[in-house]
């Protein structure tokens, strides 16, 4: 299932639908894959390890909606709209803004705990919220 839809994008950045493009579904799908990859690499590979198989469908979609919207804006939507000219490109400025929001949102969700339906019953129970803490500084 999709972490974010055009309706979610409309809540955060309604002006994206004033650019002559009716849907950003493909860009949201690319962004979802980016978010799934980030969770897989940063949390699953380091915390869960190789004892079980990664399954992105076990993530709780609602937890990643905002991250997916921000990733879509920063990495796919705004770059399509930007001219990348140095003089006054508002889309270029928004890319920086949404990259910062994405980093903040991902940090927040990792700190709150990853909701991962380990037993695949369709419900996230207390034991299926995995806190992530980085105890070592990686450089």
Brief description of this entry?
The chain is mostly helical and 139 residues long. It is built from four helices and two strands, in the order ααααββ. The termini are far apart.
Please tag this protein with its features.
139 residues, mainly alpha, two-stranded antiparallel sheet, 4 helices
General description of the model:
With 139 residues, the protein is mostly helical. It has one domain. It is built from four helices and two strands; from the N terminus they run ααααββ. It has helices at residues 6-12, 25-48, 65-81, 90-112, and strands at 114-115, 129-130. It has a two-stranded antiparallel sheet with strand order 1-2. Helix 2 (25-48) crosses helix 3 and helix 3 (65-81) runs antiparallel to helix 4. The radius of gyration is 16 Å and the shape is elongated. The termini are far apart. The mean pLDDT is 90.
> What is the SS-derived class?
mainly alpha
Fraction of helical residues: 40-55%
How big a fraction of the residues is strand?
A: under 5%
- Secondary-structure element pattern, one letter each: HHHHEE
For the largest beta-sheet, the strand count, sense and barrel status come to: 2 strands, antiparallel
* Widest sheet: strand ordering: 1-2
Counting H and I runs of at least 4 residues, what is the number of helices? 4
Note the gap between the termini: 35 Å
- Count up the domains: 1
Mean pLDDT reading: 90
Give Rg in angstroms.
Answer: 16 Å
Q: Which residues form runs of ≥5 with pLDDT under 50? A: none
DSSP E strands, number: 2
User: What is the 3D shape?
Assistant: elongated
